[in-house]
Amino acid sequence: MRSWPGCRRRACKNTRSADNGNRQTRALKNAPSVVVCTADHCTYHRGPALETHLHVVTAIEAFQAWHTPWTFFDSVCAALQAQERPLLQQVWAAACDPPLWRGNAPLAVMIDAVQTALATRYPWLSSRACGQLARAAAYAWR
To answer: Compositional bias (Polar residues) at which positions (predicted)?
Structure first.
């Protein structure tokens, strides 16, 4: 079997069209910002993991109650099924990671750092979901 390095991370998250004839992508239903690789060589986005990731991303992106940002985690958690909540807890813990929030950098710089860290560590998160998590974590750190 031929190896396709990087497919699990970059192409599946960021590519929206054919890439050098090797990868084809499609947008997922109900989550237009989430794109996955549909090429036969990609096994990362297949089966139950895809559904769980999609539900978590959709729930994160759906949060709109920024007038009560302290309700972010509980609201998103309530929108998920029990088996999906550990994944949310994992990305929330990464967003609230103390080393990312310590220092004298401006808040906007720290939020950008959190978004970058989330996108790198969890390539299946959409950029909007990373932004939502970073914004909510910023309120949690205030």
So the answer is: 14-23
